[in-house]
Amino acid sequence: MIPRPFGNLPPRITFTADFHELVRGNFQPGQTVTLRYDPRRIVPADEHYIFGDPGHRITAHLRFPPTGVVSVTPLRSPSGMLTSPDYDETGDGSVLVGHAAIPAGAHEMTAWFEYESPHGPKRCDSDFGHNFHFGFPSLQVELRQADVRDGIFTAQVAASPDVARLVLHWRIVGQETAGPKEIDLGRTDHRNDAGWPIWETEPIQVPRDAVVRLKLYYWTDGERYKDDNDGLYYSTARTEELVPPPPRELERAVREWTQRLSASVRRAGE
């Protein structure tokens, strides 16, 4: 299994101003998820709005099928009202925050947001009426292998039995302008240790030195979910290729420190 980089962190979902929904951390039942929401998604651009003003209420509405649990979570500014918020398109700046417990037995979380403006009608952010749907990838899919060998790209995924379809969304690093490609994985007769069916790609010809960046889409009960490895995507690059060598200055400092330490130990023993 390819490890998830933030699997030991509490779960959070960031809803950015450029309409992305970024999941990070141990997102699964039994956890408390933090919702981070940029109000520019829902507040009209021409409306006078002070960040965090309780008179401009934004509320998250959450459901956790099939449990029947419903959560209505007010979103607030951790720093109070701000006249000059640090807005950032990627969600790293000023955001409104709320928290909700994910009940045991939930198969997914659905969400939509409501803005009660003192200057006009209520507004909704609901993925064009479909609502936002979030699965629990760590409990549903497991990327076992993704490699480029001798110019052939292959991938193998284990998925829980209720997954009906798996699609690999991939592109070659350095060829982003060529656009992403998608390929359906085929379900095999093999299973992993947990009894999950294993899915595989057909061999895909790529340049011999290609590095492939990828994420997964999977379907259960007709709903599509995404696994993008906590927003970092997966990669066929070897770990040693991703970690640069230490700078020469650091190597020299470590060598000099080691020599001084060894000399000090020798003097102490004389």
Care to describe what's here?
By secondary structure, the chain is mainly beta. It has 2 domains: 12-134, Immunoglobulin-like (Sandwich); 140-237, Carbohydrate binding type-21 domain (Immunoglobulin-like), CATH 2.60.40. 10% of the residues lie in helices and 38% in strands. It has 2 helices and 19 strands. The strands form 4 sheets. Strands 4, 5, 7, 8 and 9 form a 5-stranded antiparallel beta sheet that branches. Strands 10, 11, 14, 15 and 16 form a 5-stranded antiparallel beta sheet that branches. Strands 12, 13, 17, 18 and 19 form a 5-stranded antiparallel beta sheet that branches. A hairpin with a 5-residue loop joins strand 14 (186-191) and strand 15. The longest helix is centred in the last third of the chain and has 22 residues, at 248-269. The N and C termini lie far apart (52 Å). The mean pLDDT is 91.
* Secondary-structure content class: mainly beta
Order of SSEs: EEEEEEEEEEEEEEEEEEEHH
Gap from first CA to last CA: 52 Å
Bin the helical content: under 10%
So what's the oligomer here? single chain
Number of domains: 2
By DSSP, the count of extended strands is: 19
Kindly state the mean pLDDT as a whole number?
91
Q: What is the architecture of the largest domain at the second tier of CATH?
A: Sandwich
Enter the CATH topology name of the largest domain.
Immunoglobulin-like
